[in-house]
Amino acid sequence: MPSYSPEFVQTMRAALDDAMTRVPVVHATPGIKAQMAELILKAAADGQTTYDGLVAAASDQIQTIISMLT
User: Fold this and answer.
1) DSSP strands (E only) in 11-65
2) Does 1 map to a domain?
3) What is the residue range of 49's domain?
């Protein structure tokens, strides 16, 4: 399991918060947030280290996640 610095964990949390602002309010559920967090963690594990890249990794999949969970 990868180990991340506290600063990078903060970056991932901020990216998740930003990505969640892009989810329509009616779909902003804990389940959607968990899926978005999983995408960010996967991107980080794959070597993505920039804030913008982490936000994009989650945001690019919003419609797919919503369609799978609704």
Assistant:
1) none
2) no
3) 6-69
